[in-house]
Amino acid sequence: MHTSPLAQPGTGDAGGMNVYVVQTAKEMARRGVEVEIFTRQTASDLPPVAELAPGVLVRHVVAGPFGGLGKEDLPGQLCAFTAGVLRDEARQEPGWFDVVHSHYWLSGQVGWLLRDRWGVPLVHTAHTLAKVKNASLAVGDTPEPLGRVVGEEQVVAEADRLVASTPAEAEALIELYDADPEAVRTVAPGVDLATFTPSRDRAAARAALSREAGARMGEDDVVLAFVGRIQPLKAPDVLLRAAAEMIARRPDLRSRLTVLVVGGPSGSGLAQPRVLVDLAEELGITDVVRFLRPRAGAALAEVYRAADVVAVPSHSESFGLVALEAQACGTPVVAAAVGGLPVAVSDGRSGLLVDDHSAGSWASALERAAVDRATRGRLAAGAIEHAQAFSWDRTTDALLATYAEAAAARLAPREVAV
Ligand code: UDP
Known about the structure:
Elements: H1 16-30, E1 35-40, E2 49-53, E3 56-61, H2 78-90, E4 100-103, H3 105-118, E5 122-125, H4 130-135, H5 146-158, E6 161-164, H6 167-177, E7 184-186, H7 202-213, E8 222-227, H8 236-249, E9 257-262, H9 273-283, E10 289-292, H10 297-306, E11 309-312, H11 321-328, E12 333-336, H12 341-344, E13 351-354, H13 359-371, H14 373-387, H15 392-411
Parallel strand pairs: 1-3, 4-5, 5-6, 6-7, 8-9, 8-11, 9-10, 11-12, 12-13
Antiparallel strand pairs: 2-3
This protein binds uridine-5'-diphosphate.
C-alpha cells in the first residue's frame, strides 16, 4: 500500500521490499502463477493497470490525494484503499485469487479483510517490525507509533502464515508479537545473480564512476561505498566518521581514499544528505566523500564492483539486500552485527561484522577488509561463494510451498472440541 513495485528503490520509501515483491512476482509468473499487485496511486498519469512483466499486473488504487501523504498518514487511508480493491473485485470473475500475500503491516490490514471476504489464505511478510526498530533507534530517529505496533499485532494474530526473512525475525515474531510458532516460516530473500556478477574489468567500472563522481579512483586507490536509502537507521554517518578516523590513523591514505554514498533521502532526521554534507565538512573529509544519485540494475552493479568494500552500518536491518548484491559482485561487506546482517554476511569469510557503531571499530574493520589487499582478496572470493547460496528462484519456491500449505490447511476439516 505504501510503495509501488514500479518505484526506483534506494530513495524515499522504496527499498528492499520493492525489490523482493518485483523479483518474486516475476519468478512466480515464470512458473505460470499469475500475480496482481495492488498499490496506492501516487500520480495522476499512472494507468489503472500496468503490466510489470508478462503475468504480473500492477493495479493502482485511488486512496487519498496522489501527492502530499507520507507513510505516517496512510493508516487514515486503509479504508479507502480496501474499498478500491473491492471495487476492482466487483469487475472480476468470482474466485479471482487463490492467495493474498501482504507486504508490510499496512497491506496486512487490507489483506486481513480481503482474506475474510474471499475465503482464501492470508500470507504476510512484515519486512520490518516496529518493536524491533524501536529497540535500536538511531539518534534523531522518531519511534514508530503505538498504532503501528497494535496494527502489526493484529496482522500477526490473523495471518494464516507469517514469512520471516531470518531466524532472528522469526524469533521476534514469536517472542515479541506472540505469533503461533506453527504459522511462522523462515524464507531467505534472494539476489539477482544475472545482474550482480563479479567484475571482469574493475578498472573500467572505476573509470566510469570516477568521471561521474569527480574523484580519483585508480586501481591502487581505496574505494568504500554506502548504498541505500539515506536515513538515520541506515547510519551512513558511521561510514563517514570511520573514514575520518582511518585518515587520522594513516594520513597517507587521504589522497587514495574515496567514500561513495549512493542513494536518495528517506524520512526525516540526522542522516539526510544535507546533514551528511555538513558532517563531511565538520570531519574535514569533503575531498574524500562523493554523493551519487540512486540507480538501478547494471549501473548499481558497477558501483558494487568499483568498491573495495561496501559498508552496511545500519542500527537495525531486517535483512539487507544490498549486502547480498555487493557480495554477488565480488565485493566484501563490512556490516553491523544486527538483525539479518549476520545471515547476509558470513563473518570472516565474505566480510566482517562489527559489534558496535564506533568510528574506531569501523575504521579497524574497514582497514582490514579494504586496505589490507591480502584480506580483501580472500574476502572477495568468499563473498562470491556466499552470495551463490541465495536466489530469488529458491525464495519463490519456498513462498509457493507456503501458499500451498496455507491453502491446504484452510481446506482441512477443523477439529471441533466437544
Ligand atoms: N537500491 C537501488 N538503487 C540504489 C540504492 C538501492 O536499486 O541506488 C536497491 C538495492 O539494490 C536493494 C534495495 O534498494 O535491493 C535496498 O534493500 P535493503 O534490503 O538493503 O534495504 P531497505 O531499503 O529494504 O531497508
